[in-house]
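Explain the record.
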Amino acid sequence: MRVLKQILAVAAVSLVGNRAVVAVQGNPWLALAIGMATAVAAVLAYEWVVRRTEGRSVTELARDGAGARIVRGMVIGLALFAAVIANIAFMGGYHVHGSGSMSGMVGLFGFMATAAVTEELLFRGLLFRLVEERLGTWLSLLLSGMLFGLMHLLNPDASLWGATAIAIQAGFMLAACYAATRNLWVPIGLHFGWNFAAAGIFGVVVSGNGESKGLLDATTSGPTLLSGGDFGPEGSLYAVAAGLVLTAVFLWQAHRRGRIVPRRRAVGAPAASVTVS
């Protein structure tokens, strides 16, 4: 019941906010405002329901240092996706046809902010964290990553391979990021930086959601395993490889910092303690 209340509180804000952003896509500044407002509302809803149901301070969303952590995650996400595009371009699969739409980029900023915040709160803040308390870091990472990938099967140009790629490169990577940092700001920033780089800057399809009108007017072509096909570059082997490398780095950091939670062997055994950086 506790978990259901938490999920419903954040999901309700996410659903209303996402629909509102989509409804005003023709007005980029309104989309930006609604997107940012939804992100803030989702954070407040998460904090409220966690305090109410768990009776603790919400350390994973601590305000101290939040800005720097978001920026750190954004830089990682932007750089990682730029590396993916560079590899696809090197193989002749990414084509820039000219400048895109500045207003479109503004609207995408709000849309991607909403998506990054709400998805990280639901999948890493709730699902991964709560499952980890019982099953440990490894199984929680596997299960939450798979569910994150399956969710993307609902997208218009989704494919089983695309959902699998998302599970590996994003579901695993973002869970590992949370395990290493024990806060949600870095994975939120990373998630946003990756998505905004894809749609808002490089103008490519994001997770099978159709064409994006970002800073550049661009398309991809070539074999699906190299370009991602209709699903977008996230369905390419370059994106999967990049996500796997970063997953390994984050898990190494989590291990070095003593933040890998073991599977709970006995009912009532205390959960492993972790610290927040």
Observations:
- Residues 114 and 265 are 38 Å apart (CA to CA).
